[in-house]
Each structure stands twice: as structure tokens, then as C-alpha cells.
Amino acid sequence: MIASLALIVIILAFFFFRGGGGDREMIKQPAKEPAVSGAKAGSQVPKETRNIRLYFLSEEDGLLHAEERAIPADPSPVREAEAVIAELIKGPEKGYLSTIPAETRLRQIFITQDGTAYVDFSKEFAEKHPSGTSAEAATVYSIVNSLALNIPSIKKIVFLIEGGEKETLGGHINLSKPFIPLKSMIAE
Amino acid sequence: MKNRGKTGLRFLGLTVFLAVIPLVSRAQPVLRVSVADLPDFSRVTIASSAPLAFTLEKTAEGLQFKLESKTSYRFQGGAVRSRLVKSFGWAKTKIGYILLIETATGDFRYEHQVQRNPNQVLINLYPSGEEAAVSTPAPGKKPAVKEERKEEKPPDEPPKPILKPTAHASPSMKTIVIDPGHGGLEVGAKGKFGTMEKDVTLTISLKLKALIEQNLAFRVILTRDTDLDVSLDNRAALANNNKADLFISVHANGSFAKSARGSETFFLSLNATDEETRRLAYLENNPARIEKHIDEENPDDIKLILWDMAQSAYIKQSSLLAELIQNEFNTELGTENRGLKQAPFKVLTGVACPAVLVEVAFISNPDEEEKLKSEDFQNRVADAVFRGLAAFLKTNS
After folding, report:
1. How far is the C-alpha of B140 from the C-alpha of B144, rounded, in Å?
2. Residue B372: helix, strand or coil by DSSP?
3. One digit per residue, pLDDT tens: chain A, 188 residues?
4. Under 8 Å between Cβ of B262 and B335
5. A86: Cβ–Cβ under 8 A, 6 or more apart, which residues?
6. N or C: which end of chain B has fewer CB within 10 A?
7. Structural domain boundaries of chain B?
8. Bridge partners for B108 per DSSP
9. Would you say the pTM of this structure is higher than 0.95?
């Protein structure tokens, strides 16, 4: 029943996203070009950028540490969210650990009116994940914190894999509920 | 969902049955005798591969367990360390055998209980009068609990895993569900040397089950007792359908960081968004409401929503249970203390009783992977969890 409810929610959300939302204030999916190249273009062309803090895992203390990056400033929170995820998949530059399997692709992001971001990853997100409570928590909260603490319109995050709901990444952390940021996972 | 749960149980029963066959077909049956001291009494456990026909008789030296049997038994008893029981004697008679349980004093009373599958007779010996008062440790004092447990330890080899849920337990008997994490195709975290989380969790869980059954009058049910896929929902359902009083999920941790190490105990974090928080807070303060809702209104939707939040009514007790287990990890295991933690675990969400998840050590850390493979470490983990839950039961009784 819960699964079917969730499915309805997803289908509805998908419908809004597809249909452009009618009179609802749905934020539309951006053009197909990958956000990564967008970020590169931003660094070459003198285009307005803004600094964000990405959260990666530290080998030292097992906590999330912030790494600053510049992404193209964009009025669309969806495009900014895509840029954040693209940077997270690219991985850290300062010796921290990546929390997303490198093979993972972002399929799409949509953000509902109440500030819930649905982040839909390819199957590698779960299949290539090493499993384990700490690893799953690191993955979930590096993404949740990086999105919600950088993009003000995002309040909660729901994870989807290949467009559908998945119970867990590897048998531990519950993915069937929305996540809110967890600052206690971040190093001081 | 319910039907799936039942099928799961039946399947569990079948695999248990198959696993027991080799024991039964063994040529000469063995009679395993052990003694453990509990706070108020000493318990003698007589375990056998076949049902026992016996009588008990109190004598000046202690208690005689007279076994009527045409087949010949092999006696297996370890060193005896107990306040009340001094030794075991074993003799053949015309009609069978006599096991003499020699006691330190003739001033005791006893009661016994017969269990099937596994076949065992539990005899509780109570010292009478002053002695009982003297030997009862001060309540709530941790060192007392520790000392006690040392004596309780099974004398020599680690206890043999007892496979079948004791289905014939009396209705008043409390139930502990142990959940060995993962299983089947779902292997969990993996170590550098190929150790899999699903195997470690099962071994430790079987040891823990045996410890509980030897020392406490509890029914113990495993969510799986072989290398089997069991869905997370069915694990919670098994606990709820059996009206579990405690739920302990056993796991080994995995991290992206190779150096991550240590032991930690979790209880559920609600990961609640605002509107949920209000409802949950209400339920936490009115746990009785959950059952009332289900009884009175009964539509499936309500049941499922409440099922999904069942654990939220037990967060406080779960937190205490987790704390007491983590305390034992800190003193018992010699691993780094990662502390008492909360996380939104799928498996704990629907469990309607105090429930915790232990992350014993990191299988992703080569040093700890070695530990997790060693029987000594596994025994100590089972022992620490047992002590933690025994301490919890004490505060709750």
C-alpha cells in the first residue's frame, strides 16, 4: 500500500514535471546538456558563478568535510542542483573520499512546490555501492547536505533509482522517506 | 504482506527441521549438562538430542535426575562454577542413568521445565532463606552484573547453537527476536579478504541465541538461521507477529574509509519532517493509541501507516537498550567506542518493541575483518550483547 502510494506520488510528480505543471509552480527540467560541461563553460567564459560547499567524507574522522566549488549561478534551482550532483560525482579535489560510485549517472532531478527534491540516479548508485551502515549514511548525507545547505528552495530530498523507489542502498538506511539535512555528520 | 510473513516462517521451520536431522541420526545420544548462576537462582540445563523420560528426587547431597532409557547415553559436562551446584555425578542404573547434581547445601528448593526442540530440561535451584539474600547482587550496580556473568559463562566450549524457535513456550514467556543482518544474495558489506557481513552476523546471532536460552527463560526467534534472503519488512513482521518483547539486529559495518573502525549501537532516528514529528511525538506519548487505532478503526491504511511508524512509540526504551549494550561493547570488546547513535534504519522502522541495531566492528577495515572472523571475538560480541540486554531486562523488571 505504501509502495503504491509512493508510486502515485512519483507518477504525479513525474506528470507535473512532464506537463510543465500547468498553473502549478513546478520547476521545469532544464535542457539536456550535462551540468558538468555547463560548469566548465562557466569557468572559461566570464559568466556569473557562485561558491557552494560540497560535502565529502574524510578518512581521518569519518565525518563530512566541506570543499568549496564554483558552479554557474542559475535562477533555476533544478539546474543548480544538477550542478551540485555533477560535482559530487566528479569527486573531491582535496584528498577526501567520494561517497557516490563513480559509474553513477544522474537521471534527473525535480523539485516539488513544498521543497522536496526528487533525485533520480542510475542503477549503479545502488549496485556499485559498497553497502554498510556508515557508507550508506555517508552517501545519503553528503548528497542531502550538499543540496539542502546550498540551495535554499530545497528542504527535503527523496532518492529514486532508475525512476523508482528503492528500500535501501545496501540493506541499511531507509530510502523510502524524505531526508532533511543532518549537520551532526559535518566536521566543525 | 502478512501472507508473505507466514510463508517465511514456514520456510524457516522447514530449514530448521532439515538442519536438525543430522543431530538426531547420530548413533550414541549425548547428554550435555551445564550450570549457570543467575541473580536469584542457579540453573542446570540438561540437553539431549532425544526427548528425556526422567524423575527428580531431592536427597541429602543434592538433587537426583533419574533418567529412564534403554539406549546408552554419553555424558558431557564441563567444569562446574556455581554458588549452589558443586558438581555433577553420572552413574548407570538398571533402568537407565542417574545424574547427581551435588549442591553446596541441602537447604534449597527447585523447579523444572521441559522444553522440546531442542530437547532440554531446565532445573532452577533456589537457595532458601538468608543465602538467597546474600548472593543477590545489589540492584543496578554494573560491577555486580559483570561478576555474575563471568560465572554464568558456559564452562568450556562455546554453547552449541540451538536452532529451532521454542514454539512450545508458555504464553507468558517473553520473546526476543534476533535479526542476523542480510542473507542470501543480499550479502551486506564485504571485507578485503572476502568476509561477508551476512555470514558474520549469522554466526554471532546463533551464539547470542544460545547464550540467552541457556541463561534466561526467554523464547528466542531468529529472523533467519541459514544463509537466506529475508526482506526487511518480513523481519519486522516476524517480530510483531510473535509479539516480540525485544528486537536486536546484528550487523558488521562498512565504510568508504578503510581506516574506519570501532563498535557502535544504533536506535532508530525518525528522520522526521515537520508534520510527521508532531504525529510521532503524539504517539510516543500515547503508545497505547497505536493498538486502539487498529482495533477500533481497522482499515488497512491506518494499520499500515502505524505499522510503518511502530518503532516511534518505543524510542526511549530502545535508546536505553542501545546504551546498555554499547556500555558492554566498550568494556568487553577492546574496540574503539563509536558510541550510541541514531540512524533511519529500514529494518527497525516497523518493529513494535524496543529495538536496536548493533554494528559490531568494521568489516571494511582489514584489522577488524580479522577480528570479525575469529571465534573468540564473536563469542565476546555475543556475550556483550547478552549482558547489555540482561541489564536492560533488570531495569525494566
Report:
1. 8
2. helix
3. 555 655 565 555 554 444 433 333 344 444 444 444 444 444 455 579 999 999 999 988 889 999 999 999 999 999 999 999 999 999 999 899 999 999 999 999 999 999 999 999 999 999 999 999 999 999 999 999 999 999 999 999 999 999 999 999 999 999 998 999 988 889 98
4. yes
5. A34, A35, A36, A39, A106
6. C
7. 30-136, 174-396
8. B127
9. no
The residue with cell 516480540 is B244
Which amino acid, residue A106?
Answer: L
Taking the C-alpha atoms of residue A33 and residue B348, their distance in angstroms, rounded to an integer, is 41
How many whole angstroms separate alpha carbon B122 and alpha carbon B63? 13
- Cα(A127)–Cα(B33) distance, rounded to whole angstroms? 48
Q: Give how far B146 is from chain A: nearest CA, Å.
A: 30
Q: For residue B366, name the pLDDT band (cuts at 50, 70, 90).
A: very high
Query: Does residue B141 have a pLDDT over 80?
Result: no
- Cβ-based neighbours of B51, under 8 Å, separated by 6 or more: B116, B119
Question: CB of A31 within 8 Å of any CB in chain B?
Answer: no
Q: Is B30-136 assigned to CATH 2.60.40.3500?
A: yes
Minimal Cβ distance to B271: which of A2, A168, A180: A180
B378 Rama class: left (phi>0) / alpha (psi -120 to 50) / beta: alpha
CATH 3.40.630.40 describes domain B174-396: yes
Nearest to A59 among B251, B259, B304 (CB): B259
Q: Enumerate the domain spans of chain A.
A: 30-185
Strand partners, A53: A68
